[in-house]
UniProtKB/TrEMBL annotation, chain A:
<feature type="domain" description="ChsH2 rubredoxin-like zinc ribbon">
    <location>
        <begin position="8"/>
        <end position="43"/>
    </location>
</feature>
<dbReference type="InterPro" id="IPR002878">
    <property type="entry name" value="ChsH2_C"/>
</dbReference>
<dbReference type="Pfam" id="PF01796">
    <property type="entry name" value="OB_ChsH2_C"/>
</dbReference>
<protein>
    <recommendedName>
        <fullName>DUF35 domain-containing protein</fullName>
    </recommendedName>
</protein>
<dbReference type="InterPro" id="IPR052513">
    <property type="entry name" value="Thioester_dehydratase-like"/>
</dbReference>
<dbReference type="Pfam" id="PF12172">
    <property type="entry name" value="zf-ChsH2"/>
</dbReference>
<dbReference type="InterPro" id="IPR012340">
    <property type="entry name" value="NA-bd_OB-fold"/>
</dbReference>
<feature type="domain" description="ChsH2 C-terminal OB-fold">
    <location>
        <begin position="47"/>
        <end position="110"/>
    </location>
</feature>
<dbReference type="InterPro" id="IPR022002">
    <property type="entry name" value="ChsH2_Znr"/>
</dbReference>
Automatic annotation (TrEMBL), chain B:
<dbReference type="InterPro" id="IPR055140">
    <property type="entry name" value="Thiolase_C_2"/>
</dbReference>
<feature type="domain" description="Thiolase C-terminal">
    <location>
        <begin position="257"/>
        <end position="354"/>
    </location>
</feature>
<dbReference type="GO" id="GO:0016747">
    <property type="term" value="F:acyltransferase activity, transferring groups other than amino-acyl groups"/>
</dbReference>
<protein>
    <submittedName>
        <fullName>Lipid-transfer protein</fullName>
    </submittedName>
</protein>
<dbReference type="InterPro" id="IPR016039">
    <property type="entry name" value="Thiolase-like"/>
</dbReference>
<dbReference type="InterPro" id="IPR002155">
    <property type="entry name" value="Thiolase"/>
</dbReference>
<dbReference type="Pfam" id="PF22691">
    <property type="entry name" value="Thiolase_C_1"/>
</dbReference>
């Protein structure tokens, strides 16, 4: 089974989950079949608290994904979580020009996808 | 010479088609024209080995060898990859020469990068499972995310990115091959549309139809040609692995530059011609700092003073065109033929890539 499957199942429940290695306690995301640090395959899933900080972002003005053409501008970001991982998503609920590196954000869901809005 | 391949092989010939946005020709026709040009320029007759690199958007080495009547062909290979390969393919060729496996190596890159398969939707790897649902695909938003953080970390602004692009246009002004030759004022730069912030369309290289070819042979066959001195290739965590990277702005040069100086025994001050992979404007200051060609703390003033005017004297990928970096290597050869010295050429593939030093005394 793809290591991604439990992740997407959780999204449909409205949860953002990340993996923890039971051998070395390393937190893992993007989802993996084994721990990138120690190689253990004994990984568990747990929900995150749901807050984070924008590490970097871009406002897409010209999309290269057919389903998103006509929806520009929209904002994409990598978000640092206090759990020790970085997750990818969009930033919603504010004007693109208000997004900044360091912006505190809170988890929400749109169409079963985890997205972020200003905290 | 710390690498055994060093000083054994020389770039004896350069060939290029016209660059355009609609060649109306097949990749095979483009490749054959560039290869014939390079072989004629080298004056070595034929080649016994053929190398190319591509992303399933081109014509294979066997077909090109047959079209050139290189039959039977010796060592031939299609290397998977794009810009990351444009410097290290000199190393692949030099290794074949230095080891005695081949005598003369023909290298080409042929693409209809504007009218055919375009790079702006090229795969960026397994992380796409997580990015495409949000509307992110292709290299531009990926390297825009890195660029945004790079500007934040360094304090550089759009004024500095303008200095990179405007200098590229100025350098291309006298280059008849260049797709963009007109001056670019700050006002015009700021008015250019964003593709993915902070990258405007003018911060991205020219999608190009065309082909470029090089002939690499033993130094005894081409004693006056620019010699391949040192070639390095490598990479690691950085802008290609933003999920885990400590520094999402790190590009290949952070990995290969220390090895280049160590394995060559040369220093940044010996470089006369820096030919840097400029698929995006911000890659120029990032590489200038990584390779030790400019002080990292001084890079903003350096750009505004246009101290980078000697970088990419033909206008680079931003203005001449984008034959996946092989046209940059061709320009390094032209510069060394004209004035001698040491050229640095680089190949970018996110946080993986390559660099080479070539020299002619």
């Amino acid at each position: 089974m793809s290591p991604y499957a439990p992740y997407w199942e959780a999204c449909r429940r409205g949860e953002l989950v990340i993996q923890t290695c039971t051998a070395c306690a390393h937190r893992i995301h993007l989802p993996a079949a084994d721990c990138p640090r120690c190689g253990s395959t004994a990984l568990t899933w747990a929900s995150v608290l749901g807050h984070g900080t924008v590490h970097t972002f871009t406002v897409v003005h010209r999309s290269f994904v057919a389903s998103h053409r006509g929806r520009e501008p929209y904002t994409l970001a990598w978000v640092d979580l206090p759990e020790g991982v970085r997750v990818f998503g969009s930033v919603v609920g504010c004007a693109p020009e208000d997004v900044r590196i360091g912006l505190p954000v809170t988890l929400t869901f749109e169409d079963d996808l985890p997205v972020w809005r200003p905290a | 010479m710390r690498q055994e391949l060093g000083g054994r092989a020389a770039v004896a010939g350069v060939g290029m088609t016209a660059l355009s946005r609609g060649s109306g020709r097949s990749e095979l026709e483009l490749a054959v024209e560039a290869c014939r040009g390079a072989l004629a320029d080298a004056g070595v007759g034929t080649a016994d080995a053929v190398l190319s690199y591509h992303m399933n958007d081109s014509v294979g080495a066997v077909q090109v060898a047959r079209a050139l009547r290189i039959e039977p062909v010796g060592w031939h290979n299609d290397i998977s990859g794009g810009g990351t390969q444009c410097a290290s393919i000199l190393g692949d060729a030099a290794m074949l020469i230095a080891s005695g496996v081949a005598r003369t190596v023909l290298i080409y890159r042929a693409m209809n990068g504007r009218s055919g398969k375009r790079m702006n939707v090229a795969s960026i790897g397994p992380q796409e499972a997580f990015t495409v649902p949000y509307g992110m695909a292709g290299p531009i938003p990926l390297f825009a995310l890195a660029a945004q953080r790079y500007l934040y970390d360094t304090g550089l602004t759009e004024e500095h990115l303008h200095a990179v692009v405007a200098q590229s246009r100025d350098n291309a002004a006298g280059n008849p091959r260049a797709l963009r030759r007109e001056p670019l004022s700050l006002e015009d730069y700021l008015a250019a549309p964003f593709v993915s912030t902070p990258l405007r369309n003018v911060d991205c290289c020219q999608e190009t139809d065309g082909a470029c070819a090089l002939v690499v042979t033993g130094v005894s066959r081409a004693p006056d040609a620019p010699r391949i001195h040192t070639v390095v290739r490598g990479g690691g965590s950085g802008c290609s692995t933003m999920d885990v990277a400590d520094d999402v702005t790190r590009i290949f040069s952070g990995y290969v530059a220390p090895r280049l100086w160590d394995e060559s025994g040369m220093s940044p001050g010996q470089v006369d011609v820096p030919v840097l992979y400029d698929a995006y404007s911000w890659l120029v200051p990032r590489q200038l700092a990584d390779f030790g060609l400019a002080e990292p703390g001084d890079i903003g003033d350096y750009l505004l003073k246009r101290a980078h005017a000697r970088v990419n004297p033909h206008g680079g990928l931003l203005s001449e065109g984008y034959v996946h970096g092989l046209n940059n290597v061709a320009q390094a050869v032209r510069e060394l033929r004209r004035a001698g010295g040491v050229a640095l050429v680089t190949g970018f593939g996110g946080s993986y890539g390559s660099a080479a030093l070539i020299e002619r005394s």
